[in-house]
Amino acid sequence: MAIITMPNDLACGRGCRVELITVDATGTSDPAGNSQAREYGMPKWALSLTAHEILTDAEAGAWKALLLGLRGGVNYLAAFDPSRPYPVGSLRGSPTLQSAVVYGATDLTLNCGAEQAGRTVRVGDWIQIGTGLGTSQTVMCMADATVDGGGLLALIFMNPLRRGFDAGTPAAWDRARTYYRKPPGRVGWTPYSFTFSQAIGVALVESWP
Question: What 8-state DSSP symbol labels residue 18?
Fold first, then answer.
């Protein structure tokens, strides 16, 4: 098992897609017809990456190296959402967790530093909490928020945390990466001409040890 890192300049097209996979079930009562829904596991992110319609040799080479390097579903891909590699909000700097958070949490407070006062995150921005496979999680902001005068930012997010994190854990906003694996199936590409390729893409599902 190895970790492949998605290149920052991977030639991604407009067909890229982020999805949420939930693990839930709904049951209906026969006599009354009322229904109940229950979660049975942690939701996961899914990411479909699609290349530009036509790729140069160099662009296609980067794609081929990524696809073949995954070795099917053996290796992980540390990938970011190419449609939002950095926040729509203005948050920058090096934020850390102000206090410890626990399994299942959907809110936390970041210490962004007083110099970040007035900076923002917006709905849909990504934040990566922690680093490394199995020791980090990337979440999506669910509400706009602003860093207060003391440098603190109250963040509401999805998905719920799969583990606890200690105070001081770093939180990354720049190309927040999630660890994915490719489900079973083929990968490939189509020669367009002697020097160009097309029809390259891959579908991925969030995975952790």
Answer: E
- All structural domains of the chain, each given as residue ranges with its CATH number in brackets, are 1-85+175-209 (3.30.200), 86-174 (2.40.30.290)
Whether 153 and 95 have beta carbons less than 8 Å apart is answered as: yes
Tokens of 150: 């003391």
Q: What do you get for the CA distance between the two ends of the chain, in Å?
A: 11
Give the residue from 199, 209, 200, 186 showing the smallest Cα distance to 72: 186
CA distance 109 to 100: 9
Percent of the chain whose predicted confidence (pLDDT) is above 70: 100
Q: Can you give the pTM of this predicted structure?
A: 0.92
Q: How many CA atoms lie within 13 A of 9 on its CB side?
A: 6
**What pLDDT digit, counting tens, does each position of 150-193 carry?**
999 999 999 999 999 999 999 999 999 999 999 998 988 888 77
Asked whether 167 and 99 are in contact (CB, 8 A), the reply is yes
